[in-house]
Amino acid sequence: MRFFPPPAFLTMPAVGVDVSDKSIKFLQFERTKDGCKLTVFGDVDLKEGVVDGGEIKHTEQLVEALSVAKERSGASFARASLPEQKAYFFTTKVPSSASHDQIIKILEFELEEHVPLSPGEAIMDYDRVVENGLPTGDEIVVGVTVYPRATVMKYTDAFKRAGLFPLSLEIEAQAIERAIVPYGDMRTFMIIDLGETSTGLSIVSNGMLTFTSTLDMAGSALTRIFMEELSLASSSDVAHVKNTIGITTNGTNETLTKKLRAVVEKLVEEIKRHREYWETHEGENNKKNTPIDMVFLCGGNANVKGLPEYMERVLDVSVRRANVWQNAFSINDTVPEMSFEVSLSYSTAIGLALRSDN
After folding, report:
1. How many domains are there within the chain?
2. What is the pLDDT of residues 75-110, one digit of tens each?
3. Is 231 a domain residue?
4. What is the pTM of this model?
């Protein structure tokens, strides 16, 4: 596929579309013999309240924004993300000899144990996580993603009405993992997606997503503090201050420092709690989960100056801003048409664009 890429009309080239409460980000690659080539990207602002907490409140306005994304990208097909806040994720064991349809039926029976939805109210899919060491013919572990059917239908309908046929839908954490975790790296990573309206935490182990959660912290808390303490009026001013001053105020403004640290400490405590839960519990393979080897930061607020260094010191584990082009191309050979700071907010769209069902 890499050295002899098929004609575009056979592969149905699709744009990765990431819908958040604030905006729609879209990005598309062209696959060549030298790897992926970034061909188009952009964003469309959403009016406040169009999407709230991942729930579509005003379908017509979302369709209008998606139509703009379609026009700018020139795409007819999309690989889209669904809101993490509406997702349920769990792991379980199934017979290794079971067919896809048989596995779905098994999962339907287990649904009530894990999520507050009946099979008729849910849409689910699964991925193999890791074989549990039992002989062939026994069991495998699968990661199961479940969404309310009504949520999926709303998003699907909005995309279709905008002229973007959705080839696939997946949770943001799955797309981000595809973008930033090096292919073939079996270590255990924690990913913190620091958005403006929400923060997602996920854990990838043995090359597969195994845990997701939404943290009670958003970049908007930092934005509000900077605006109030420094009398900033525009979002561009706030972004500049976040990236150049951040939490490293060096005592020049004690009130600002205290308020910023309070927010960051709350975030770190949440991360510690989830890390402890992960590392002290057994997985579906009846073995203790492996310790976190590294923490990746992505999302627009991963740019906050001093944040990785502070988290690394407190968590006592390597923390770094993600290379969102990790699995698309080498930044040593290719210079993308967007800054590193901007690229961090495109991690979901990049992961979606990298998906291939061939």
Report:
1. 1
2. 999 999 998 888 998 888 899 889 999 999 999 999
3. no
4. 0.90
